[in-house]
Amino acid sequence: MNDTRDPNAPDSMSEGVETGVISPGFIAQFIGAVGDGDKPYLWRTVKGLHPADTADLLEHLPPEAFRKAIHLLGKDLPAEAVAELSDNMRLEALHELTDAAVTAMIGHLDSDDASFLLSDLEEDRRVRILSKVSATDRAAIESSLSFDDESAGRLMQRAFVAAPVFWSVGQAIDHMRSVSDDDLPDTFFEIYIVDPAFRLQGSVPVSRLLRYSRETPLKDIMKDVPVEVRPEMDQEEVAYIFRQYNLASAPVVDEAGRLTGMITIDDVVDVIQEEAEEDILALSGVSEAGVNQSLFSAVRARIPWLLVNLLTAFVASSVVSLFAHVINEVVALAFLMPVVAGLSGNAGSQALAVSVRAIAERDLEGPLVRRAIRREALTAMINGTIIAWSAALIVLLWFHNPTISIVIGLSMMITFTWAGLVGILAPLTLKRFGADPAVASSVFVLTTIDMASFFVFLGLASLMLL
Amino acid sequence: MNDTRDPNAPDSMSEGVETGVISPGFIAQFIGAVGDGDKPYLWRTVKGLHPADTADLLEHLPPEAFRKAIHLLGKDLPAEAVAELSDNMRLEALHELTDAAVTAMIGHLDSDDASFLLSDLEEDRRVRILSKVSATDRAAIESSLSFDDESAGRLMQRAFVAAPVFWSVGQAIDHMRSVSDDDLPDTFFEIYIVDPAFRLQGSVPVSRLLRYSRETPLKDIMKDVPVEVRPEMDQEEVAYIFRQYNLASAPVVDEAGRLTGMITIDDVVDVIQEEAEEDILALSGVSEAGVNQSLFSAVRARIPWLLVNLLTAFVASSVVSLFAHVINEVVALAFLMPVVAGLSGNAGSQALAVSVRAIAERDLEGPLVRRAIRREALTAMINGTIIAWSAALIVLLWFHNPTISIVIGLSMMITFTWAGLVGILAPLTLKRFGADPAVASSVFVLTTIDMASFFVFLGLASLMLL
């Protein structure tokens, strides 16, 4: 074969993989091969890469090359690589692939990943593909899809290892040696012990199973499961349990206590990452983001908050307009009012970020709430005092007007305290009413701080200066 | 014993544990027992709880009761519970415990957790305690402490299972059955295959080991390790590798490729959580936060950003002062200038949050950078156009002055585009110079947007209105 490309592409990448970056040269080479329709090169490259790296490589391609690469690879594209693609690109890849290719991929995946892929498809295509997979896979996938998005039921896989409570270590090991690979999960960290009605009795970590002699009864070495995970449970709750109890996997049981699935840490790690990201974005008023997000969806993810903010900004500016006569009298107030509003707004953002984080960490519960509110109020008052009188000093040096200096000092002390209180009370209140504390808090917190700043500062000015 | 307290406390908590909350009644009961010095009750309660729940319970106590509880429990306090406490409370607990109690705890922990606890102590106390633990433990802990904070070397534990490459499955299992529990890690998910010089050759997941017959040579079933983790590696890099390759554990090798330790997912989950939280807080100008953070440290964590912001706010307000004559002429400009600055600032925060998140996710690398910058610029221009002319319409309806309306429309289009560009370019530039993109970006982005807003809006106004 007359191939001028590096015959050992994956190896040439080892350096790239180490730093988590696919090298630009490697990407360029791959794009060249896609352009030439060089299937054997694409196939060899993908075969030599970890599926996660294949997904990274594909995400770095320009849209046209991406579609062509998916098309050329077809059913040779590893199912795991497709599952690792970012949302938009996964949708596009599935769109590009034939039904036969998608069906083959579904067969290779654990049921949680399979239903994850299928949930992206239009109803009729999903039905068509499901009709072609094996009956067992179909049942597992359909039951998974019957649970809500972001529930434990969606995260869990149907393949797990269960052993009757009366078995010994040896019987469990012999069982695992005898069943076919297809009937076992790819990797698992514990086996579950069940009674004859398949009710969960306990679990034995695989590393524990190995340490005991073949005759040891499983029930002598099994451990209690610290918390029950139910399929309806929200994925955020699942993530909390995994973190709290340092779990690598957890059984999922139905309302009768029967074992129905298993959740593994890799899926939970993605949830933890997603939830943290959602909070970061929500605090800045962005509903979603991602590499390769389309322009349209980037605009759509950000415009709602800006539109709300447009209204609140004019409400705040109407507060300023109430004091037009004061500003006409003392134009310096116009220079200073953004200082008051801006600094108080930042103090509010600080309190908000701390509170949203603490709520997500479940650190704001029970008796800790009152302590946290007191701390926020005091912190705001102390910082407010320091900043307010520093600002007052700067103003005094600038305008040589002690009254304006006192006005800015007093008003900042008040607005800082307000900022600290609203920064913790707004998310706590939203949470109490079942809303996401991160999403709506920013609007409310920043708007009320702006209004309070303008009102207090200009109001005090009109009382003391006119 | 005349004990009116719920004799079965931990069970009564099962509901509390399920929702991750230790019930207020249970806490009150525990506080009562602490007050009475009822050691047996405390001891029974702690024994019945998962260490993570014990840590939660202790964190919910008022400071006085916390210290007394630690004192009463002494060496009966599980080492794992102390390791799970938040930073401040762990320090306080260690302060309250005797050297003998801490020494006993160290002996119960894996080396990563043991060095984690010891790293909190003052030098001389650490030396004193280390001199009392076993020589093996001491060597492991000292070597761990020799690595930087936040490095792979600190995350890794010294206990792992290694097998020579020429062993069979049966030999590996027999080895694990014969060694004492103390020489094996509490839980492990894979065993490592080494050559005679202890250089890492591959790994065999424990669940894979179980599926093969006793005669199978390990080298036939071992897998390549996807990426080498070195002890000097930053923990953020380690977290990235775990997420990218869906790992539950990873071997750590030295520069000669020799196996030196193992990192497990539970430690990495904490890192992922911490790093995401650091970004949330940093974007709002908070350097650290936590449940039970002291007032002093809360003030100290927030005042630096406010002080910097104090200066930048006055710089921005001096821009406004350049246009005092325009504001004197048209006081409406004073109402509107916070609208321009506020909305553009929010557009900048959106771009910043998206970029900081993408950088943390390693989505902003190679050819994706140019695409992302183009998308941010276009998104800002589109949103800027929509918001700018909506604002212009509101202004027209409010002031019936088409010129002011055009001034606000034009200036917002310009400042939104600026906000979008600086929101992505600032963190990218900081990252290129090796700084944390989240920390310093906010200051720079918001200050330049404020200044640009005031300058463009008031400048255009002075050109078009005077």
Describe the model.
2 copies of one chain form a homodimer. Chain A is mainly alpha-helical and 466 residues long. The first copy, chain A, has 3 domains: 9-150, MgtE N-terminal fold (Alpha Horseshoe), CATH 1.25.60; 162-265, CBS-domain (Roll); 295-465, Orthogonal Bundle (Tetracycline Repressor, domain 2), CATH 1.10.357.20. Helices cover 67% and strands 5% of the residues of chain A. Chain A has 24 helices and 5 strands. In chain A, the strands form 2 sheets. A 3-stranded mixed sheet of chain A has the order 1-2-3. The longest helix of chain A has 32 residues, at 368-399. Chain A is globular, with a radius of gyration of 30 Å. At the A-B interface, α5, α14, α15, α17 and α18 of A face α5, α14, α15, α17 and α18 of B.
Map the helices and strands.
The structure is a homodimer of 466-residue chains.
Chain A lengths: L8 H4 L1 H5 L5 H13 L2 H10 L2 H9 L3 H11 L5 H6 L2 H10 L2 H10 L2 H8 L4 H8 L4 H11 L6 H4 L6 E3 L4 H10 L11 E5 L5 E6 H4 L8 H4 L13 H10 L4 E5 L5 E6 H19 L11 H27 L2 H6 L2 H29 L7 H32 L2 H31 L4 H29 L1
Parallel strand pairs in A: 1-2
Antiparallel strand pairs in A: 2-3, 4-5
